[in-house]
Amino acid sequence: MTQPDLALGALYGLALGDALGMPTQSFSRGQIQARFGRITTLENAPADQPIAPNMPAGSITDDTEQAILVGQLLVEGKGNIDPHQLARRLISWESGMRAKGSQDLLGPSTKRAIEMILAGHSPTESGRYGTTNGAAMRIAPVGIASDINQPERFIHCVVQACQVTHNTSLGIASAAAVAAVISSGINGKKLEHALNAGTEMAFIAEHQGHWVAGGRIGPRIRWARQASSECNPDNFGDLLYDVIGTSVASQESVVVAFALAQRVASAGLNRFDALCMAASIGGDTDTIAAILGAMLGACGGMQQWPATLIEQITRVNDLHLQPLARDLLALRLA
């Protein structure tokens, strides 16, 4: 597989996971089972969907849209992200979503950070409380544009993408872990190797940003991967939902995505089935599936994603990611 195919696999994997999880986000595992049984394809959102009511099947959410935003800023900045520009773009993005009547707005950490920026605080201070998964969900373009084999440049780029909204040990470590998996995949590494790189990077990157209390990302990923490999198939869903957790906290949703990826690597779980499991598990399903899709896509390319569903997502969202993937790879080679 070529780097262009792997980069596209990451971006479209993110969008596919996002769209699969769109109708189930914020529902409990039991509610999803009662309404959908198990997600196996793209579904319409029901009228009482708390975040995306009545959205048509195949619609993407903030996960993909903000990842594209970060990617565009990277390209415009020739590999750098200006924190004030990121703040302005996020504000503009939310305004556009409000104008459309969408409830899919900025998450709690990002919202608080933007309010601090508007009140005159510096970008390094605005993100000091951000511990949720907002940075990790939009970090995929950094993994494509930055080579993990250049660790100082790689971490610098991750911090730039996180600083405004998630300038904390937890926010940066979780985003760096995801980006490292993607970057390793773009370098042609197999999934297991890439997950090892992501786990290691979580330990390295946790020294960036403001320290905050909470279970550390690196040890939790390492533990969850081992538990995933050893778990009885009948109990795997319980491990994800009841033990690791599926909330917006980075220590839960990002770690769950790693646990699912490990199941693919060590137990042969089909990659698309893994995305469907993420979309069916309850909680922050769209973000879990989006992060998982980006990591798996970077390590397996476009061939693993059903072409008919990719075509549907492209049509519903007028989504054309090839130019962005090309421009991000050009940054990697610069």
Description:
Keywords: Hydrolase. Belongs to the ADP-ribosylglycohydrolase family. This is ADP-ribosylglycohydrolase family protein. By secondary structure, the protein is an all-alpha fold. It has helices at residues 3-21, 29-36, 62-76, 83-99, 108-118, 123-126, 134-137, 140-145, 151-166, 169-186, 191-205, 217-230, 236-244, 250-267, 271-280, 285-300, 307-317, 322-333. Helix content is 67%, strand content 0%. The longest helix has 19 residues, at 3-21. The protein is globular. The two termini are 21 Å apart. The model has no long low-confidence stretch (mean pLDDT 94).
Give the key terms.
mainly alpha; 67% helix; Ribosyl_crysJ1; ADP-ribosylglycohydrolase; hydrolase
Q: What's the short story on this structure?
A:
With 334 residues, the protein is mainly α.
Helix share of residues?
Answer: 55-70%
Mean pLDDT: 94
Helix and strand sequence: HHHHHHHHHHHHHHHHHH
Strand content: under 5%
Low-confidence blocks of residues? none
**Compute the gyration radius: what is it?**
18 Å
User: Any idea what the shape is?
Assistant: globular
Structural class: mainly alpha
Distance between the termini: 21 Å
Instruction: Give a short account of the largest sheet.
Output: none
Count every beta strand, where a strand is a DSSP E run of 2 or more residues: 0
Question: What's the tally of helices?
Answer: 18
Organism: Pseudomonas fragi
InterPro entries: ADP-ribosylglycohydrolase, Ribosyl_crysJ1, Ribosyl_crysJ1_sf
Keywords: Hydrolase
Family: Belongs to the ADP-ribosylglycohydrolase family.
